[in-house]
Amino acid sequence: MILSETAPNNVNWELMWAPYDETTYRDVLDLIKPHDIVLDIGAGDLRLARRMAMTCRWVYALEIQRAFLDQVCSDESYQFPKNLTVQPGDARCMPFPEDVTTGVLLMRHCDHFRLYADKLKAVGAKDLITNARWRSGVEVIHLQSERMPYWQIEMGWYACWCGAVGFKPGKVEHLTPELESVVHEAVNCPRCEN
Ligand SMILES: C[S@@+](CC[C@H](N)C(=O)[O-])C[C@H]1O[C@@H](n2cnc3c(N)ncnc32)[C@H](O)[C@@H]1O
């Protein structure tokens, strides 16, 4: 596990990396389609980016910690897939490629979810595959879909554009099994307003 220069007194969780489990990678790979052009935000040592490149049209991999990339590139046995573009740098400031269809954000401690979602939506990307909102498992967010203002949700689970998730309370007698199984894609939740 490699930490940022701010560790150990003030650990920057966003910059921490340890490989995810195979189930997580498998779940992402199952969601990638052959025509997808993927932007892997925080690509680490490229282990997932390389596998995605075997499945889809193109992968752009952004990684802020150059050391990870240098490590991979110094391995002479490593063969770069032709459809993988690696860009060292800070994804918060870098322009996102205009042809991206799908973002991949595996970052359970992400503090900039909204920024990444806004940037992907602005370039016309359709989907974001991520574990950043629920912080476990992987979900697909349809970036261009309509979202419900938080105040319009009567009761139930919500996942907001800002990255917050939660359960909006209501009257217990209104709670149904269906309501418990639905997640409302929301905007303007209480956290957005703080
Ligand atoms: C949890 S790791 C995931 C690595 C890789 N996607 C994987 O699943 O194996 C998150 C990665 O995001 C990188 N990262 C964090 N903030 C970043 C930023 N602003 N720009 C680019 N990369 C960033 C970290 O350095 C780290 O390698």
Secondary structure elements and their pairing?
Layout: H1 22-31, E1 37-41, H2 47-53, E2 58-63, H3 66-73, E3 84-88, E4 102-105, H4 113-122, E5 127-130, E6 139-142, E7 148-149, E8 156-160, E9 165-168, H5 177-181, E10 183-187, H6 190-193
Parallel strand pairs: 1-2, 1-4, 2-3, 4-5, 7-10, 8-10
Antiparallel strand pairs: 5-6, 8-9
Bound molecules: S-adenosylmethionine (SAM).
Residues 14-15, 17, 19-20, 42-44, 47-48, 62-65, 68, 90-92, 106-107 line the site of S-adenosylmethionine (SAM).
Question: How would you characterize this protein structure?
Answer:
The protein has helices spanning 22-31, 47-53, 66-73, 113-122, 177-181, 190-193, and strands at residues 37-41, 58-63, 84-88, 102-105, 127-130, 139-142, 148-149, 156-160, 165-168, 183-187. Mean pLDDT is 92; it is low at 1-7. The chain is of the alpha/beta class and 194 residues long. It contains 6 helices and 10 strands; from the N terminus they run αβαβαββαβββββαβα. The protein has 2 domains: 13-142, Rossmann fold; 148-193, no CATH class. The chain is elongated and about 65 Å long.
CATH structural architecture of the largest domain: 3-Layer(aba) Sandwich
Low-confidence stretches: 1-7
Radius of gyration: 18 Å
The fold-level CATH name of the largest domain is: Rossmann fold
How can the largest sheet be summarized?
6 strands, mixed
Number of helical stretches of at least 4 residues: 6
CATH C-level label of the largest domain? Alpha Beta
Strands in their spatial order, largest beta sheet: 3-2-1-4-5-6
Which kinds of small molecule does this entry bind, naming each only once? S-adenosylmethionine
